[in-house]
Each structure stands twice: as structure tokens, then as C-alpha cells.
Recover the amino acids of this structure.
């Protein structure tokens, strides 16, 4: 059945993909070149669009400050999500305990719940707690909102670990904690890796939470930095924006290329758009 | 309880703590805030009690507060009270004058400073110079206008001291009008249901969800999944990667690329102008073009989730069935119609229900692209809530009203989450663990 001709399909798909191909090709091209106004193709090679790496843009903090903030934000949320999901997921997957169904049902409902609707209440709560405009506040919020998803994913990975492994550990006299730590946890490393990469990418790209909860220059992440650069009408320069954008996307591209297989599963579960 | 149960609770404790503090609390608090009139004007912590010109004009014509009282509150008057007398004693005045003033006028109220001055002139030990009389009278000038009182009791006491006894109903009405902080109210919901703008926003939202969902999130996702299934694997994985780009790109960057495509000086114009199409900003040119871009931007992201899920569902179809149908002479279209599509019913249902909720509540891409414009033609419900409560050009952020708008989405979200549980077999997902110690 695959011997039939496929070129009409290829042409059809290529045509539909054209906007994406053009946008991403020019994303890279435009960061190294200049074009005459209204021209389709660039006419000059230049590195000046990358000067933002050493020069500040207006009164903004340096890009490295924003990069550091983004890195702290993404790694801290990832660490929290991994630690908390790997224990909670195990409890829900394997431990017989009262209220287990209640916890599971809660996680499942929250997992499906659209968290972005809570942004107004979260903004007011952080103001009341004095955590507004701090990285700590936005990290705690991001990690908490991601937890039901993380717990659910980790529970799924624990569910695939054969019961025989734990049975044999317990028959050898180990406690449940020791069995978890030494026998089961190593079996779900692929899950931890997948969830970790996903959380990191999700934190790295996050826009609304830092924009609303930590907009100040000293704590702003790259997404907020870039959005403020674009909204600033004084200096409208797509080549600059794209260079900043490409710089911002480099870790995403690298992680994606290396861990594509792991991510496919998780994106299939869907968390946005 | 068993040790295992304790271990379980210990393992769940951090998760419970975080989720309760920053997930469940916001759910509950959204409901709470929706019943308040919190805004930039009221602040979010408590307020004070203060009579201002605004309060007085709002009270005019009130049934609860007598008109003379309202008038008195707006003016200044002179009260010979202990505070003033103490200040007088501290000042550079004759002791006999102070004693006489206390004896003759103590406790009396004068409608204006001039009347008090007149009364002072009648005293035997009055200061000789007019300037001193004025200075003495000034010490008794009292007004409750623009003075902050921390509690309602302080406020009531000051009003009574200033204007004499006030009936309880009048005092309650006065205190409510004078309070600068937020208070509980159901006004947000009557506003919500009576606002014509929100009616338009609701229609926009339905249109946006329906169009994006049918055209891209299910429609085009189906096309992508089926076409890539029939392509050689290298080509197929190329197209899948291309269509995943929008999903893995940070939203700020992804929307920037669309802006560049549509901008006055952007790519579309560079291509179209030589063909005689007048240059314009395609994203804001008209209502149609704005909607087209909003749907494209969201649809290109949304298509990839359907593509992944549907692709794996198609790959799960046993190959022999497809070969057998090919041997029996079925063409591709017949295969798709009779074998592939029936297999995709459940995945499509999942995608539809998931993406409906997702499109209803997420506003990130619209915020970054048109921001609801031009005018408010592409304003959807979630974005309207954001604009009301968190960011608008007027600078008057109405937290309470915005929370009421968000509450509608929260309730809908909870309801849809329960629907998922029923659709996707809750019992099997929460089966009991097999080791019992």
C-alpha cells in the first residue's frame, strides 16, 4: 500500500507547512543579515544584531541577568516537581493507605484543570503574602501548578515497574522506604528524566506567570524581557528581536534534539494550546 | 494505621502542602474574590474610614443619612473641646483667659470660626490683639473631612464628637460610604450578566474555540496524522518535526515570528507588494484578518497535539488489516474511510474535550499577538478577565470583577474535569495496590 505515489501528499504538506518553514528559516537568517526595506532576501552579512549580548537595551537589566533568572526559575521548579512527584507518585501507585482514592481523584481532576484561570487569585495571594515580584513566589506557584501533572506522570511510570521486584525486596527483609529508594527509584529514571526535561522546558518558556507575578527588571525572566522589548515602540527592530529570540531558544533546541523521544510521549499528553 | 500508611502520608505530605497552598487555595479564593469589590482604588489589604468630598456627593439624597448631617460633615466647625483647651493652655495665652474660656464656652459648638471669635470677644479676659483672638479660635477648628480613622469605632466616636448624636442606621450607612477598603458584594455578578460588552466577548469566545478546534486542532491534525502515515518515514518525521516547532518554541518568540510575517514592513508585504497588493499590517487590518491570524497562531500550535495522539493511534492499527484491505483492492481513501477513521473516534473525543477547555482558558497567544485588537474585536473571555483584573490602559484594575469572570471559567473547568473522569474510566485508573502488608 505504500508503493503508491506519495509526491502529491508531499507537495500538499509542504504547501501547508510553508508559513512555518519561512518563519523559522528567517528566524535564523535574519539574525546574521540585513535586508533593504521591503526586500524579500537579505543583502548584507552582519553581526550587529547580536550586540545585545554585551550592550544593555535602554534602561533594561542585562540579558545575562534575565538569563540567570530564567535558569534559576526553570531549574528550581524542575527540582521541586521532580522531588515531590517522585515520592507522591510512588505513594499513589504502590502504598495501600486510607484516602488513597481521594488523593488519586484529586490529582486526576487537578491534572485536567486549566490552571491559568487561577492567575488573578494567585496574584492577589502573592501580594498578601509579600511574595509578589520575587523569584521565590513565582517558583512556588509554577511548581505547585505543575505538580498534579508530574505526580500523574510519575504514577504512570511506577505502575509499569513489576511488582515482583518489590516483593523480592520485602521478602529479603527491606522496608518499603528502602525498597523504594534502592530498587524502585532506579527503575523509573527514564520517567524522571522525561519529566525533568519537560518541566525545565516548560519553566524556560513560561510567560504569563512571571509577567504577572514578577515583572520587575531585577527578577524578570527572558520571556518577560523579550516581551517588554517587543512592546516598546521606541525601537522596533525585528532583527534584534529575532536574535534575542534565537538566543532564548538555544537551550530548547538542544534539549529537544537530544531528548526528542522522551518528549514525544509527554507532549502527546498535552499541557497547552 | 499501618507503617505503610504512615509512609504513604509522609510521601504525600510535600505534594499536599504545595498543592493546597498554591493550587487549591487559589481555586477557593477566586470564588471569594469574586464576591468582593477589590480594585486598585480599594487596595487588597484593609482600608480606613474617611469622609471625602466624593463620599459626601455620593451620600447626597441618601434616605439613611439626614441631609443636615451630610452638610455639616462637609464643613468645618469650631468645637471647644478638651484637646483645643489643652492646646490653648500650652500656648502663649493669659491663664485667666484660658480659665474663663473653658468655663464659659467649654463643650459648645460653633458653625464657623467667625462665630467662635465673636463669642471670645465677649469674654472679659480676652486677648487685646485681634490676631491673638484669631490664633486662639483657630485651635478649636474641627473637621472630619479627609481624616483617616483606623476602625469603625474610632470613626463613629469622632463623628459623634463632631456632630453630636447620630442614629445607628445613619452611622452604618455613613461608615459604609466612608470605608476606603474592599467589602463583600454580589454586584460583580449582576454586572457580568448585564454587560453588553461581555455578551460580545462570549460570542467571540465561542467562535474562536469552534473555528480553531474544527479547522486545526482536530481537522488539520487529522490530515497531518493520516498523510504522514502514508509518507516514507524520513519525510514523515521531517514534517512532524516542523509541526512540533510551534509547540516547543517559547510563546513570546513564536508569536514574534507571526508578527514579523504580518507587519507593515514584514514578509507578507514584501512578497505581495510587487504583485500589486497594497501594504498593510495584516494582523490589525480588519476584523477578518485579525481573526485569521489569531486562529492560525493558535491552530498551528494546537494541531501538533492532535497529530501526535492520532499518529500513534493509527500506528496501533494491526498492519495485516491494512494489507488485507489493499489486497482486496481498497484504495487509500477507502482505507481511511473504513479502517482508520473508525479507530480514531476515542482519540478525537479526547482531543476535542481537552482542547475545548484549553482554548477556553488560555489567552497567552492572543495576548501576545493582537491583545484583543483591533478595538476589542478579538477579545475572548479569559483575556477579558486578564484585562479587567491585571492589565489595562486605564490603570484601574478591578480584581473583584475580574475574579468573577475567572470564576465562570473555574466552574466550567471543574465540571469538564469531572467529565474527563467519566469518559476516561476512573475506576481502572485508581485500582488498588497489590501489595498489602
Amino acid at each position: 500500500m505504500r508503493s503508491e505515489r506519495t509526491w502529491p501528499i508531499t507537495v500538499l504538506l509542504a504547501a501547508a507547512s510553508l508559513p512555518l518553514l519561512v518563519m523559522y528559516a528567517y528566524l535564523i537568517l535574519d539574525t546574521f543579515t540585513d535586508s533593504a526595506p521591503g526586500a524579500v532576501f537579505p543583502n548584507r552579512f552582519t553581526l550587529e544584531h547580536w550586540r545585545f549580548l554585551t550592550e544593555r537595551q535602554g534602561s533594561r537589566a542585562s540579558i545575562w541577568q534575565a538569563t540567570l533568572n530564567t535558569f534559576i526559575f526553570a531549574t528550581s521548579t524542575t527540582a521541586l516537581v521532580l522531588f515531590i512527584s517522585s515520592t507522591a507518585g510512588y505513594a499513589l501507585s504502590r502504598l495501600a493507605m486510607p484516602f488513597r482514592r481521594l488523593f488519586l481523584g484529586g490529582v486526576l481532576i487537578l491534572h485536567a484543570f486549566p490552571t491559568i484561570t487561577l492567575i488573578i487569585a494567585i496574584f492577589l495571594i502573592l501580594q498578601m503574602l509579600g511574595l509578589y515580584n520575587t523569584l521565590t513566589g513565582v517558583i512556588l506557584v509554577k511548581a505547585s501548578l505543575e505538580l498534579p501533572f508530574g505526580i500523574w506522570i510519575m504514577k504512570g511510570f511506577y505502575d509499569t515497574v513489576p511488582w515482583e521486584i518489590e516483593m523480592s525486596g520485602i521478602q529479603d527483609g527491606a522496608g518499603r522506604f528502602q525498597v523504594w529508594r534502592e530498587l524502585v527509584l532506579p527503575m523509573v529514571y527514564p520517567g524522571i528524566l522525561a519529566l525533568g526535561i519537560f518541566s525545565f522546558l516548560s519553566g524556560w518558556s513560561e510567560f504569563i506567570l512571571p509577567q504577572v507575578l514578577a515583572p520587575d527588571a531585577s527578577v524578570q525572566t527572558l520571556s518577560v524581557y523579550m516581551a517588554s522589548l517587543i512592546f516598546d515602540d521606541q525601537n522596533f527592530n525585528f532583527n534584534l528581536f529575532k536574535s534575542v529570540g534565537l538566543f532564548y531558544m538555544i537551550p530548547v533546541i538542544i534539549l529537544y534534539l537530544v531528548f526528542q523521544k522522551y518528549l514525544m510521549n509527554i507532549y502527546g499528553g498535552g499541557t497547552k494550546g | 494505621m499501618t507503617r505503610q500508611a504512615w509512609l504513604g502520608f509522609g510521601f504525600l505530605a510535600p505534594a499536599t502542602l504545595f498543592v493546597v497552598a498554591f493550587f487549591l487555595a487559589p481555586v477557593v479564593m477566586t470564588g471569594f474574590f469574586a464576591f468582593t469589590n477589590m480594585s486598585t482604588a480599594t487596595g487588597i489589604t484593609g482600608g480606613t474610614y474617611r469622609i471625602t468630598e466624593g463620599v459626601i456627593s455620593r451620600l447626597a439624597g441618601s434616605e439613611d443619612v439626614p441631609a443636615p448631617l451630610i452638610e455639616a460633615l462637609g464643613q468645618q466647625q469650631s468645637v471647644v473641646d478638651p484637646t483645643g483647651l489643652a492646646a490653648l493652655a500650652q500656648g502663649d495665652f493669659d491663664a485667666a483667659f484660658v480659665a474663663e474660656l473653658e468655663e464659659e464656652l467649654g463643650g459648645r459648638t460653633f458653625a464657623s470660626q467667625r462665630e467662635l471669635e465673636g463669642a471670645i470677644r465677649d469674654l472679659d479676659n480676652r486677648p487685646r490683639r485681634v490676631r491673638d483672638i484669631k490664633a486662639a479660635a483657630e485651635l478649636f477648628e474641627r473637621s472630619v473631612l479627609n481624616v483617616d480613622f483606623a476602625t469603625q469605632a474610632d470613626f463613629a466616636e469622632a463623628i459623634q464628637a463632631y456632630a453630636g448624636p447620630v442614629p445607628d442606621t445613619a452611622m452604618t450607612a455613613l461608615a459604609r460610604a466612608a470605608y476606603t477598603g474592599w467589602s463583600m458584594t454580589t454586584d460583580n455578578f449582576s454586572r457580568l450578566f448585564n454587560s453588553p460588552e461581555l455578551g460580545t466577548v462570549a460570542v467571540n469566545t465561542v467562535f474562536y474555540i469552534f473555528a480553531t478546534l474544527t479547522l486545526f486542532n482536530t481537522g488539520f491534525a487529522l490530515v497531518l496524522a493520516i498523510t504522514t502515515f502514508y509518507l516514507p518515514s524520513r519525510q514523515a518525521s521531517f514534517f512532524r518535526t516542523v509541526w512540533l516547532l510551534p509547540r516547543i518554541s517559547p510563546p513570546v518568540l513564536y508569536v514574534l515570528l507571526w508578527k514579523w510575517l504580518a507587519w507593515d514592513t514584514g514578509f507578507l508585504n514584501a512578497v505581495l507588494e510587487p504583485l500589486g497588493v497594497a501594504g498593510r499590517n495584516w494582523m490589525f487590518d480588519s476584523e477578518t484578518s485579525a481573526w485569521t491570524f489569531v486562529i492560525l497562531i493558535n491552530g498551528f500550535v494546537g494541531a501538533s497535539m492532535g497529530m501526535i495522539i492520532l499518529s500513534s493511534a493509527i500506528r496501533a492499527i494491526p498492519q495485516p488489516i491494512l494489507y488485507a484491505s489493499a489486497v482486496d483492492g481498497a484504495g487509500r481513501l477507502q482505507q481511511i474511510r473504513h479502517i482508520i477513521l473508525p479507530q480514531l473516534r476515542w482519540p478525537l473525543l479526547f482531543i476535542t474535550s481537552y482542547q475545548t477547555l484549553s482554548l477556553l482558558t488560555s489567552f497567552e497567544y492572543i495576548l501576545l499577538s493582537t491583545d484583543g485588537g483591533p478595538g476589542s474585536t478579538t477579545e475572548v473571555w479569559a483575556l477579558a478577565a486578564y484585562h479587567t483584573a491585571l492589565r489595562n490602559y486605564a490603570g484601574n484594575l478591578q480584581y473583584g470583577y475580574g475574579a468573577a469572570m475567572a470564576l465562570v471559567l473555574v466552574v466550567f473547568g471543574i465540571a469538564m474535569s469531572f467529565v474527563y473522569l467519566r469518559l476516561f474510566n476512573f475506576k481502572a485508573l485508581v485500582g488498588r495496590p497489590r501489595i498489602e502488608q
